[in-house]
Structures are given as structure tokens and as C-alpha cells.
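TA notes, week 10

Several of you asked for a full example with nothing omitted. So below is the full record: C-alpha cells for the whole chain, then the designed sequence directly under it. When grading your own attempts, check the secondary structure regions first.
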């Protein structure tokens, strides 16, 4: 059961919302699947994607648990989480791939025209799971969020559960508006969205680094 205040819920939900607009093969495959195969097929594909994210969250959390405990005692290790976010942000910002390349990448696993929901589910899972950048993103996010929640496992999983909820809810809206989104996602719009998302990740990365070297009170004054 979720046990978090409205502020944390809002922040987690917004992270999920923005994640849903990270431009890449999964984004275009979801839109294509909705248009060509229908909403149910797109939802089956999206559930596979989300399972991939959940797998990465668990890997990142349990794989970095000892590091998270050290961060609690040595705030300077926030530097590592910030660095991970900055690197992922730079990759996103500098990515030169266009819409056509992203769509071609999304065709890694062929699915027959006739809907096969199980295959679509696995397609979504593997298409997301083979992207090591997603793991880097979740690792950086966990290193950011974990210490702020006092390393409470239930609180951390609740927070990330809301992120996934925000992500899935936004994807449902994308599925419903698939045709309109496909028409609006011009190469120029894609380029701008990637730049914006990259800058957001880089800024969060720098703020995380500052948190390791500046007392919380000073950092809050700096931010506000």
C-alpha cells in the first residue's frame, strides 16, 4: 500500500509523465502498434515495456543497495548518481538519430499482422530491456531518490510504483491519441523534445552532485 504525501506522489507521477515522452524505439513502436493493431495490442506491448522497467528498477536497487547505504553515511557519493544522470542526459541531448532510424530500430522483433498479444508483450519487454541506457537512468534515479526516503524499502518501492503508474497512465493517453501524435511528431519536434529531456536530466544530475557537497539548507536556498 502506498504511504506517501501528496508532494512525493506528485513528483513521482510527473517523473513517470516525462518518461513517457522520452523519444526512442519504444515510443514509436507504441504509436505504430496502436494505429496498426489497435489499443489492446498497444497495451499488451506497453505492459511488456513496463515489466522491462520494473526488472531494471529491481536490478538497479538491489545491485546498488550497498552503495545506497554508503551514501547515507557519505553524501559525497551523491556524485555518482549525479554523474549517471548527466551522462544519460548528454547521450539524450547529443543523440543525432531521427524518427526514421528510431522506427527502423523498433523492428528488431517481427510480429505477424494478426494480433498475438503474448508476442507483443515479449516484444515490448525485450525492446526495452536491451536498452542499457534505461538501466543507467533507473540507477541514477534510485541513487537520487533512495537517500531522500531514508533508505526505506517500502517508501522507495511505493515512490517508483507511482512513477510507473504515471508512465503507464500517460502511455494509455498516447495510445488513445496515437494518430494525432504520429502526425505531430515531425523530425523538428523530435529533435526539440530530445534536447529538452537531455537538459532536464543534466540539470538534475548537477543538482544531485551539489547535494553531496552543499548542506541541505544551503542547497534549498540556492534552488529557491
Amino acid at each position: 500500500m502506498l504511504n506517501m504525501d501528496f508532494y512525493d506522489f506528485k513528483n513521482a507521477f510527473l517523473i513517470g509523465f516525462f518518461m513517457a515522452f522520452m523519444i526512442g524505439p519504444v515510443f514509436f513502436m507504441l504509436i505504430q502498434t496502436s494505429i496498426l493493431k489497435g489499443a489492446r495490442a498497444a497495451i499488451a506491448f506497453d505492459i511488456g515495456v513496463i515489466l522491462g522497467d520494473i526488472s531494471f528498477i529491481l536490478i538497479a536497487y538491489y545491485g546498488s543497495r550497498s552503495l545506497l547505504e554508503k551514501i547515507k553515511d557519505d553524501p559525497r557519493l551523491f556524485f555518482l548518481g549525479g554523474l549517471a544522470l548527466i551522462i544519460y542526459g548528454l547521450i539524450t541531448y547529443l543523440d543525432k538519430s531521427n524518427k526514421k532510424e528510431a522506427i527502423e530500430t523498433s523492428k528488431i522483433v517481427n510480429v505477424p499482422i494478426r494480433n498475438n498479444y503474448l508476442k507483443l508483450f515479449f516484444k515490448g519487454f525485450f525492446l526495452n530491456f536491451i536498452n542499457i541506457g534505461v538501466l543507467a537512468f533507473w540507477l541514477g534515479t534510485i541513487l537520487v531518490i533512495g537517500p531522500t526516503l531514508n533508505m526505506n524499502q517500502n517508501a522507495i518501492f511505493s515512490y517508483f510504483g507511482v512513477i510507473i503508474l504515471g508512465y503507464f497512465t500517460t502511455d494509455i493517453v498516447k495510445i488513445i491519441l496515437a494518430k494525432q501524435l504520429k502526425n505531430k511528431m515531425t523530425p523538428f519536434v523530435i529533435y526539440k523534445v530530445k534536447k529538452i529531456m537531455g537538459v532536464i536530466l543534466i540539470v538534475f544530475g548537477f543538482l544531485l552532485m551539489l547535494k553531496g557537497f552543499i548542506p541541505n539548507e544551503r542547497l534549498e536556498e540556492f534552488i529557491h
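The two ends are 33 Å apart (CA to CA). Use that as a sanity check on your answer.
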